[in-house]
Write a structure and sequence with these properties.
Layout lengths: L2 H31 L1 H5 L5 H32 L2 H21 L3 H4 L2 H29 L7 H4 L1 H24 L2 H6 L4 H18 L5 H8 L7 H40 L5 H29 L1 H23 L4 H19 L2 H4 L9 H18 L1 H11 L2 H21 L10
Helix pairs in contact: 1-3, 1-4, 1-6, 1-8, 1-10, 1-12, 3-4, 3-6, 3-17, 3-18, 4-6, 4-10, 6-8, 6-17, 8-13, 12-13, 12-15, 12-17, 12-18, 12-19, 13-14, 13-15, 14-15, 14-19, 18-19
Length: 422
């Protein structure tokens, strides 16, 4: 394949995940800031927050379903068409959330419909990552799979930064009343334009050579998920556990800390979003560094060191967040997101390398999304409960425990850096 074509593939895998994660993150931020007020107004503030975090978790339940659904077609029909479909579903669900009237207009139907649309977001994102990772790695030279697998991993950093900057701009230019009434909806509506761009890029890409070979030789499976569970269930489980640290670090540092920082520490929303914008740069920086190292040192050493550092970071959470120092709080956010990027980047190659071509979309996608259920779906909810029952120190212990789970999982897994990929 020509270099320009590979560059286009890398960009296509990056731009799609950036858009889909932008859609996903704007909901996470809205859940931390305003969803409870709009869709659960009858509750006290603490219950509003917990209810909002529960709707946030609905999408994580849907993501493994999306991984199996889109994985089925990705492993039978092809990566290209399946990726376009997942992006379209995500975009439509996000747009409709932005247009959905609140509790004051629809009553109990408002939160019910919200959960359905949030489920749709989860389905779309569930089908996105596996295909984007394969799009990059199945085109990559064997000695650069970690590097090319980094591009879909870089998408979430950019998507989150766009989401953060969107809410930051709204907080600067709108009053609190305007933001709560309609301002928070603007990033959801604007996502429709990004989806159009993503679809255009996706439709111009070629199918991956590895899948074309399987399709030509008629080696696809009638039910990829059944074959995958029969022969590769252990790889799915260990891959999911290895992903836990990435998810837990990210959603603790962003969703929980955003809520805790603005509502308990009373840090102005604009200021905290600025702090997150600084921290996310460290995640973006860690991503290419970690991917490059994984091609030279192997996936396991990089992941083990990142997980070990995350264990230690959990023990510092309480001290830094309770310091009343903007500098120290930003330091915690930067460390957490840097380690998230360091543990996240090698997964773009490490998870696909666990599975053969014919079930790779299903297997890699399902492992990735199950990790989301374990590490992220209830992370803000559990953290909120822990801080109310026992204080911030227990949130730190929770982060350390999740990092330890991933450390042990990677310790059991084999190195895949030089594994045959067809």
């Amino acid at each position: 394949m020509k270099k320009a074509s590979v560059t286009h593939i890398a960009f296509a895998s990056f731009i799609g995940t950036a858009i889909e994660f932008y859609d996903f993150y704007i909901y996470a931020m809205a859940a931390a800031l305003v969803i409870g007020q709009v869709f659960f107004p009858a509750s006290d503030p603490a219950t509003q927050t917990l209810n909002a975090f529960l709707t946030f978790g609905v999408a994580f339940v849907a993501r493994p379903v999306g991984a199996v659904l889109f994985g089925h077609f990705g492993d039978r029909v092809g990566r290209k068409v399946t990726l376009a479909a997942s992006l379209l579903l995500m975009g439509v669900s996000t747009l409709l959330i932005g247009l959905l009237p609140g509790y004051a207009v629809l009553g109990v139907w408002a939160p019910a419909i919200l959960c359905v649309l949030r489920f749709g977001q989860g389905l779309g994102l569930g089908g996105e990552w596996g295909g984007a990772a394969l799009l990059a790695t199945e085109h990559a030279p064997v000695h650069q799979r970690g590097w090319y697998g980094m591009f879909p991993q870089l998408g979430p950093s950019v998507g989150f930064l766009l989401a953060t900057l969107s809410f930051l701009a709204l907080s600067v230019f709108l009053t609190e009343a305007q933001f709560s009434a309609w301002g928070w909806r603007l990033p959801f509506v604007a996502s429709a334009l990004l989806v159009v761009v993503g679809l255009y890029v996706r439709f111009k890409i070629a199918e991956t050579p590895a899948f074309v070979e399987v399709l030509t030789e008629n080696k696809t499976h009638m039910m990829p998920v059944r074959h995958m569970f029969k022969h590769h269930a252990k790889a799915v489980l260990l891959g999911a556990l290895a992903m836990v640290v990435c998810y837990n670090l990210f959603y603790t540092a962003t969703v929980f800390c955003l809520s805790y920082g603005t509502k308990t520490l009373l840090i102005p929303r604009v200021q905290f979003l600025e702090m997150l914008s600084v921290a996310i740069v460290f995640m973006a920086l860690a991503t290419p560094i970690s991917a490059w190292l994984s091609d030279r040192l192997g996936r396991r050493p990089v992941l083990l060191v990142a997980s070990l550092m995350a264990i230690l970071t959990g023990f510092g959470l309480s001290t830094l967040l309770a310091s009343d120092s903007v500098l120290l709080i930003t330091l915690f956010l930067a460390i957490a997101l840097f380690l998230m990027g360091a543990s996240f980047a090698p997964m773009g190659a490490f998870l696909p390398e666990q599975f053969p071509v014919a079930v790779r979309y299903t297997g890699a996608g399902l492992a990735y999304q199950l990790g989301g259920i374990l590490g992220a779906s209830t992370a803000p909810f559990i953290s909120q409960m822990l801080v109310e029952k026992g204080g911030l120190v227990w949130v730190g212990y929770y982060v350390s425990a999740m990092a330890a789970v991933s450390f042990l999982a990677v310790l059991v897994m084999r190195e895949t850096q030089h594994r045959k990929f067809s």
